[in-house]
Predict the 3D structure of the following.
Amino acid sequence: MFCPNCGKEISDNSVYCNKCGAKINNDEITPIMNDDIEDPTIISNSGKVKKIIIGLIVIVVICCAGFGGYKYVQAKEFNNLVKTANQKLNAGNYDEAIQLYNKALTYRSDSNVQKELTEAQKYKQYQSIYNQGLKLMSNKKYSEAIQKFSSINQSVVQIYNNAQSKISQCKKNVINDDIQAADNAIENGDYDNANKYINDILKIDANSSDAKRLKAKIVQAQGKSKAEGNIKEQQQAINTSIIIKYSIDERGYIMATNYPNGSSIQLKVGQEINLIGNVSSKSSQRVLFDGTVMKSVSPTAIKTTTVGGGDINIIPNGYDWDKAYKYHIIVTS
């Protein structure tokens, strides 16, 4: 039982409380606690406390679960954005990749994503330069296109490799155009311009077999042109051959000549001298000439063969030198 004064538990047979000394009247004692007796007020308050505690625990659990779920959703969305952005970057869709990387960074700051964003922006810049090169190439501005492609940095590997391939193609196109232009110039006898085109080829390919072939073609064409020129000049000389007209009367005198006796006549190599003589039936003639610079091509025609000088003698009646006419022939190149 308990002391009614101080509440200390004491023996059921105690007369005085061994703590406060109060006298114990057994008739007035009411057990404060008994395992078999329940206080409804205490039970009611205890139940409320338990419910409050449980409620608080539930709220905390729900909040933690909600926050964790929110973080999980954010992390998942971030990873999906980065994954898709990487795919777009690898596919060459740089604008979409940049947009996705920027969106991913709104979820959280990440140095790797920032690095990928910078990479995508760099790829976009060089892709623009590459596209400009393609446009110049389509307009056959190969030299300008080569300059554009050459400005692309090796760090953007895919675009750089594509640019190098286009540079090789442009060089082939430039060489092909120069070959065609050089061939046309050679055909037209414009050897100076032909050599310029050949030099342009050699700037691109120092060991170009086409350049060597074109140089040999120029040498051959120049030789042929010179030979043709000589032939043409000779033909012109032949076409402008001179004619010496004269007549020999029955007495053996040379008359009516268009070149006086002793005339000097200047000719070119290959030019002809045609002797047109009207000889009386009572007379005859003999023609002698210097064979070192001339030769006979017909009974009435003499052709110059070599640079130099020599005489043509028209002698009446075979040996009548007193009546002979002499012409001094000067042959030039």
